[in-house]
Amino acid sequence: MFANKEYTHSASIRKKKFGAFTLAEVLTTLTIIGVISVVVLPVLRGNINEKAIDSQKKTFTGKLNDGFHRMQIRSELAKTYDSTEDFVKTMNSYFSFAKTCSQNNLADCFGKKLKKGATVYDLTNINGTDDLGIRFSENAHVNGLVFNDGTTALIAYEPDCSIGNIFDTTINVTECIAMYYDVNGSHQGRSLVDEDVFGINTGEKAMDIGEVYSTTSKFDKSQCEDAKASGVPISHCPSNTDYYAYAKWFCHQKGKRLPTRAEFSRILSQVYGQPISSTGKSSNLQAVDPSSELHRKLSNNVFWTSEHERWDNDPENTLAWYWPYYVIIKDNQVEVARGWYGPSSEESVYGSIERDFLKFFCIE
Predict the structure, then answer these.
(1) What's the gap between Cα 314 and its chain centre?
(2) Cα separation of 96 and 148, whole Å?
(3) What is the mean pLDDT of the segment spanning 182-208?
(4) How far apart are CA 242 and CA 224, in angstroms?
(5) Residue 45 banded pLDDT, cuts 50, 70, 90
(6) Helices 221-229 and 243-253, packing angle to 10 deg
(7) What is the rounded CA–CA span in Å between residue 71 and residue 76?
(8) What's the rounded Cα separation, in Å, for the pair 80 and 280?
(9) Is the predicted pLDDT of residue 206 greater than 70, yes or no?
(10) Are strands 142-146 and 152-157 parallel, antiparallel or unpaired?
(11) Residue 119 contacts residue 108 (beta carbons within 8 Å)
């Protein structure tokens, strides 16, 4: 029995030795885990931060809408103000700012410099909206704001601009104001602000798209070629049911044109108060002013743009040379798609798009 116990004990020892990890194996495993952590964790943190910022942005624009709605009810938006300072003073009664800053002290509310794209704006030396690339009809003052939730902002009001009256259901606040805002508020007083900053009407003056037209009329090949010869920017005339060529001709007759994808992106940024990609898809968007005329005209429609793409994979098939881009706006989603000239084979937020379902408007 003693021998059996000794044998059993020895076998157990050998088994344990055989099943153990060496120091090299442990170090190798830890190294692999470390490498994976270095690669994966920043991505996870980035996704979490992006979702948090998106949530903060929606909360802030919601509060902004509520405050402006209360101003509208009391006819404060129907008034015209002499300056940004006067408008901010009235806003303060509805938003109760934690702090406001004059144009000479913007860094106390925001930061010393603002970087948007490749442009850096020196906020310690701002003489008005022109210095921030905001195109009002005249150079207006810029003020700094700190909201009670910590959001910091730069705001400008175009003097003598009337937004609407209490009975107007198509109010568009962005026609008269421009704003940069930082939902984190963590950049207050920093030397350079270049992250998580969003804009409302911070590019060109709010664009009026005018009347929205339906593509119920069309050109045949002969009419398309005549329009092309007269100077209408048409590249191809492949079909006898050419709604796209008709839309281009229609705008040309008015001395206008269809918007490009980039121009459409700027128009949409006025509605949603944030940059909208001119390619691909953007979702979970929230309109700054859902009752605005611009939002009403664009919502739940599909629009032509002036751009198309030549496709040479099958040169014998002339129809395949003509791939117009269109913009789909439905609920809280925007999609820029490229479709075949006829009914689209691509599925979108609308499903399959028929060419005569698209609408268009003309710009200068």
Answers:
(1) 35
(2) 7
(3) 63
(4) 8
(5) low
(6) 30
(7) 5
(8) 40
(9) no
(10) antiparallel
(11) no
Amino acid present at 51: K
Give pLDDT tens digits for 303-351: 888 877 655 555 555 444 567 788 888 877 888 877 653 334 444 444 5
The amino acid at residue 265 is S
Cα–Cα distance for residue pair 178/202, rounded to 1 Å: 5
Phi and psi for 342 in degrees, rounded to 5? -85, -155
From CA 202, how far away is CA 199, in angstroms rounded? 6
Q: What is the pLDDT of residues 11-31, one digit of tens each?
A: 444 544 555 678 777 778 788
Locate the DSSP E strands across 81-215. 99-101, 113-116, 119-122, 142-146, 152-157, 177-182, 197-200, 213-214
Q: Are the C-beta atoms of 345 and 338 separated by less than 8 Å?
A: no
Tokens of residue 3, six digits: 């021998």
| 83, pLDDT greater than 50 | yes
Query: Distance between CA atoms of 214 and 232, rounded to whole angstroms?
Result: 19
Measured CA to CA, the distance from residue 286 to residue 61 in angstroms comes to 8
Q: How confident is the model at residue 88 (pLDDT cuts 50, 70, 90)?
A: very high
Q: How far apart are alpha carbons 218 and 53 in whole angstroms?
A: 45
Residue 248 amino acid letter: K
Residues facing 121 on adjacent strands: 114
For the chain, domain boundaries: 47-200, 213-360
How far is Cα 84 from Cα 87, in angstroms, rounded to an integer? 5
99 φ/ψ angles, rounded to the nearest 5 degrees: -165, 145
Spatial contact of 94 and 172, defined as CB atoms under 8 Å apart:
no
Supply the DSSP symbol for 357: G
Whose tokens are 């909201």? That residue is 147
Amino acid letter, 278: S
